[in-house]
Amino acid sequence: MIILLAPDKFKGSLSAQAVGEAIARGLHQQSLEVSTIIHPLADGGDGSLEVLAQHLQGEWVTTAVTDPLGRPINGSYLRTPAAAFIEVASASGLVLLTESERNPLLTTTLGTGQLVAHALRHGARHIYLFLGGSATNDAGTGIAAALGWQFLDQAGNRLAPTGNNLGHIHDLIPGQEFELTQLTFTLLCDVNNPFCGPQGAAYVYAEQKGATPADIQLLDNGLRHFAGVLQEYTGRDIANRPGSGAAGGIAGGLAALLGAEIRSGFQTIAELTGLAAKIAAADLVISGEGRLDGQSLQGKVVGSLAELCQRQGKPLVLCVGANTLGVAESRAVARAVYAVRDQATDLADALTHAESYLEQIGKTMKLEGL
Taking CA 129 as the corner, what is the angle to CA 125 and CA 134, rounded to the nearest 5 degrees? Predict the structure, then answer.
């Protein structure tokens, strides 16, 4: 029996690779003849690049950039001969700031743009940008500024590419260093939020980035204004486009300014890593994530993988940290669902000993009849 282990990470506990390895150890303790293939997955959020690097023959590149508040740091990205894979979180992530430093009015994606510019100057022609974990709400103006774009107010003054300046942008001057018609930008995300409005970047995500209610209203007004400016200058209407609100509006801003394509992180990673072919070659697919809930079925790894397995007629079993779905919902997704939380004494035990519990699940999992 060929078993494909294609899990997501258990956030705060185990990497996707570690999840797969733990289940595989358990499976190999069964008396049945099994061959396991570990294929870690991600949905385009933070940590996705680490997963992708395990599949691609790429080179890690480190260069000096600035953090969300403009301080010097080193940022890294993955480079292949013609492409570069960059995580916004590397240079513009929330993890780079203390709680007291979080302020999406003042943070910028300039450092991420410096990584993009470095990659382009060293031969990359396709930029894959992973949008998870940003500390910003600048609609990608920082990235664009690093590529030479200028944003001017009504008096012609150059504005810093930060969230509090979006509402003051009156004019755009495109960068001249890079020929955009020769480049491809792909934005990977796992959300469908529009650019602005009640479900937009500011109202849904800015609070966790340090915004007050007054800040959120200011940021949303700025996004709405900037969307109008972008439509006037580029002809692209991104205000209500699904996914355009990802990462503080980076997706919408770059879709308009650079002609970037907004794509499902899972689908892109699946294509880049040849997931469909591995599913086709397997007798059974095992996946999982830290928490199985309704959101898992909306563009996340488990829900997307379930669709692929159903399409190919392959049985899917899930090993998760906790399962909040009902019996009927669980059966609609997978043949069986095993949860670490059902075995652990409490949450702390589940988080601390997830690896050993997953190994035990693999050891006792019923494979006959799947």
Answer: 150
